Amino acid sequence: MLLIADSGSTKTEWMLLEKGKLVKTIYTDGFNPYYYGENEIARMLNHDLLPHIQGNTISEILYYGSGCSTETNCNIVTNAFQKVFTDIKSTIYHDLLGAAHALLGKEKGIACILGTGSNSCAYDGDAIIENVPSLGFMLADEGSGTYIGKLFLTAYLYDEVPKSVANDFFETYKLTTSEILDILYRKERPGKFLSTLSSFVGKHKDKPFCRQLIATAFDDFIRVQLSKYTDYEKLPIGFTGSVAFHFSDILSERLARHNLTIHKVCATPTKGLVAFHTR
Question: How far apart, in whole angstroms, are the C-alpha atoms of residue 186 and residue 155?
């Protein structure tokens, strides 16, 4: 049996395949090796994944994960897998290559991730050939859930959000300014908190302020990511991730302003990955 995983910073989707057929899907928390060490990842695998796959004879694991863009980070995940699955071959890939496999298959084009974080690459049908650096939520992550949350929270704290939306935000979260700053600067993983705010913004996307805020996030992504790729106007552009999927109408509008269109959009790359590895 083959186990394929697509892991973001928030969630991991595990797909168990037998003879090319999907037999089981398991969801666990995500783990980015920039934030988790191998022992912590191994504990998560033991606790969250192992009970759901015991009794199945797995011959290989293909893992596509956020943060797995460097040899050091890939080794962290590899070592964690070896502690839990001692006799199973595991291969670690960057989630960006997973996005390319799922969105483009063997065709050349540009693959984009707009979820908790953001990333993109130019793909030649086999490998990633160009990649604008992904600088994380502190410096960048344009177009992502975290970026949208950051834009909204900044506007909220500067008292620039319309009263009806601001009042709903306070009623929903009941956070003071000092409590918000405490979450951002004293608590662990503030990016996760920021990313959850994109759902709140999405609830109000019929309001011009929130719709424009989402549009600004996508404009920034187009400016600092897409426009940097060679012949980007001529290549098919695919998007995966919850933000791209749930705000695809606004994304399409912003792309059209640059004479660009969406080749394909999906909430997760899992179906595309299964198709890629079973064709």
Answer: 21
Tell me, letter by letter, the H, E, C secondary structure of 180-203.
HHHHHHCCCCHHHHHHHHHHHHHH
CB atoms within 10 A of CB 59: 10
Which is it for strands 237-240 and 264-266: parallel, antiparallel or unpaired? Answer: parallel
Q: How far apart are CA 242 and CA 144, in angstroms?
A: 9
Q: Is 63 helix (H, G, I), strand (E, B) or coil?
A: strand
State if pTM tops 0.85. Answer: yes
Q: Tokens representing 94? A: 């960057």
Residue 40 identity (one-letter amino acid): E
SS3 233: coil
- The domains located in the chain, with CATH, are 2-98+271-278 (3.30.420.40), 138-215 (1.10.720.160)
Range from 45-59, 61-75, 80-94, 156-170 that averages highest in pLDDT: 156-170
Helix, strand, coil percent content, the chain, rounded in steps of 5: 50, 20, 30
What pLDDT does residue 249 have? 97
What does the pLDDT look like over 135-158, one tens digit per residue? 888 898 999 999 999 999 999 999
